Each structure stands twice: as C-alpha cells, then as structure tokens.
Amino acid sequence: FTMNVYLFVYDLMQFCGHSWIFTNMIIRFMTFGKDSLADTFHSIGLVMRLCQLLSVLEILHILIGIDKSRLLPRFLQITERIIVLFVVINSQEEVQGKYVVCVLFFLWNLLDVVRYTYNMLARMGIYYLPLTWLNFSLCIPLYPLSVLAKGFAICVSLPYFESFGTYSIKLPFPFTFSIYFPYVLKMYLLVLFAGMCFIIRNLFSERMAHLGTGNIKNKRS
C-alpha cells in the first residue's frame, strides 16, 4: 500500500509537470504563433529538465521491483531523452532556438501526459478502455517520430560541436589519445535507431498484452 501511494504521488508529479509544459506550449502557440517556437526551450526548458531528471527514478523502481515494467526498454527510452536534452540541446544555445526542439518537446509531453494519466488511474485499479487503448497505441506512431526528431536535433547540433569543440578532449603528452565528440554523436545515431527497432517491438508486445481480447473483457468486467 505504501509503495502504491508513493508511485501514485510520483505519477501525479510527472503528470502535473508534463501537463503544465504541454498546456504552456499550446497556449503560447495560439497566442504568438510561429514566434513562440523559437524560444520554447527558454520558456519551458527548466521544467522539462526537472521532469526528465525525475524520470531516472523509474529505472530504480524497476530495479527494486515495485514497477513490473521491463528494464532495458525503459532504460533506453530514458537515456535517449537525457542525452539529447542535456548533452545536445542544453549545451548548445544555437540549437535551443531550432523548431525541432519544439517538435520534440511536443511529442514527449503528449506521450507522457497520456502515460502518467493511465498510470495514476491504474494505481487505483481504474481502467478506462479508451484511455488504455490510447496509452498503448499512441506510442507506436509517435515514438518513431520522436526518434526522428532526436536524430534531426543531433544532426543540427553537429556543426556547432565541430566549431566550438564542446566535449571534445585531447589528452596531453605522453597520451596520444583524443575524443572528437561529433564522431561520438554520429556513432550514437546508429545506436539510437538500432534501439528504436527493439523498443518498437516491445511496444507492440505490451499493446498485445494489455489490449488482447481476454484482457479487454476482464477490464470491462
């Protein structure tokens, strides 16, 4: 019971954070139009970073057994966001004003508002079939789109990492070893798209497990 209350509070906090971001983005766009897209990161970036840092707890939840989700898919999804948000976007001010950041934040928060709403109700044993369907169906088209947006954000950032030398390291003598960070990002692109295939397969299996004919009948009853 205590763990259920803790998880409910965690989901509620995440729901409030992502709902605020999502609502803020929509209101700003309706008010200022395309002009609002360029300063999306400066307007909501702090709350977005806090929410993503808080999501690291989900890995701990799985490790200690209070969350029955699979570890590897969730780990990959969380680390993808952490790397793109903190390493790529947060470190390059020139990237923060790109439209792709707004697109990426919109996709992330749309998915998370639905997911944390479903999780909160599930903690109380409440299952609405439309919400269950939305939670396990919406991610299948939107997750690949978010991966494409992440890849595009990385590609956009490469010229800035090359010109500013951010995170590139050249060790002094006697070490003849250096790390050129744009190469690291290019290799990470391969990992990102390889991981996408694995996660999409996991999303389909989760959808089948929760929306199979037998499960739907049980939840209706």
UniProtKB/TrEMBL annotation:
Pathway(s) this gene product operates in, as recorded in its UniProt entry: Lipid metabolism; fatty acid biosynthesis
Gene Ontology cellular-component annotations: endoplasmic reticulum membrane
Source domain of life: Eukaryota
Broad class of the protein's primary localization: endoplasmic reticulum
GO MF annotations, alphabetized: very-long-chain (3R)-3-hydroxyacyl-CoA dehydratase activity
Pfam families named among the record's database cross-references: PTPLA
Keywords assigned: Endoplasmic reticulum, Fatty acid biosynthesis, Fatty acid metabolism, Lipid biosynthesis, Lipid metabolism, Lyase, Membrane, Transmembrane, Transmembrane helix
InterPro entries: Tyr_Pase-like_PTPLA
The protein, known as: Very-long-chain (3R)-3-hydroxyacyl-CoA dehydratase
Originating organism: Cettia cetti
Gene that encodes the chain: Hacd4
